[in-house]
Amino acid sequence: MGLLFLKDFFDLIFPRNCDLCGRSLFDFENCLCKICVGTLPKTLYHIMPSDNDLTEKLKGLTQINKAMAFLRFTKEGMSQKILHKLKYRNKPQIGIKLGNLYGQELFKTGFAEDWDLIIPVPLHPMKQRRRGYNQSEEFARGLSEAMNIPWKPLLIREKFTETQTKKSRIQRMSNVEDVFKLNTQETPNGLKILLVDDVITTGATLCACANVLLANGAKTVDLVTIAAGK
Fold it and tell me: Which of 32, 80, 148, 188 is 20 to 30 Å apart from 40, CA to CA?
């Protein structure tokens, strides 16, 4: 009875609410309520991972086998709201939750055997210190837990680049040229890599990272993001 009272007291003082809609969470819910999870704008990229609009977009920019995204990004839509909470409202747990959810789907579809290591796209150290975490690393953690595949921050971002938001595709490619390199003396040589980021638009950042990994001996590089925009 005492423990139950204590739990009720803490729930009253520190209520657990859904990070997206604000509803009260049940004990079995973590960070997002079942209603929000059930209405996420999911894609079906994992059904055709090697032949879709993402792989078509990246042709000629890098050598990848598969490209997938968990959510469809729409302006002012649910995916934009959830990404904004993750990146700018100190909600790293959302990244882990989304990684877990998508990782479970990929595991059920048999993708876990396709990768040896998960590598997140890095933030510049100054931006990561300001934010407190790298949202792509949190997504990588969730994927890692769900698929039992290790993850490592094997890449670093050497240069602080301007925001990509209003740049053309060519400008974006130029903006990330020579920005990334390996973080340690450890290399991805001979490994099947899953490279992950929060969102893919033109794919410039992901391609720049993939090219560094391939140049350093990665056997294959596949791409997975939280969301993909047109």
Answer: 148
Which residue type is seen at 202?
T
pLDDT tens track for 26-68: 988 999 999 999 999 999 999 999 999 999 999 989 999 999 9
The token duo for 147 is 């698929």
Provide the residue count of the chain: 230
* pLDDT reading at 77 higher than 60: yes
Task: List CB contacts of 84: < 8 A, sequence separation 6 or more.
Answer: none
CA distance 53 to 58: 9
4-36 residues labelled b (16+ CB within 10 A) or e (exposed): eeeeeeeeeeeeeebbbeeeebeeebbbbbeeb
DSSP bridge partners of 200 = 228
- Asked if 179 and 207 count as a contact pair (C-beta separation under 8 A), the reply is no
**Which structure tokens are listed for 129?**
């210190």
Cα-based distances in Å from 189 to 113, 116, 193, 218, 223: 18, 11, 10, 5, 17
Please count the CA atoms within 13 angstroms of the CA of 193 that sit on its side-chain side: 31
Structural domains of the chain ordered from first start = 1-39 (no CATH), 41-228 (3.40.50.2020)
| 3-state secondary structure at position 113 | helix
Helical pair 135-147 and 78-88, crossing angle rounded to 10 deg: 110
* From 93-102, 135-144, 162-171, the region with the lowest mean pLDDT: 162-171
From first CA to last CA, the distance across the chain in angstroms is: 54
C-alpha triplet 224, 180, 71: angle, nearest 5°: 20
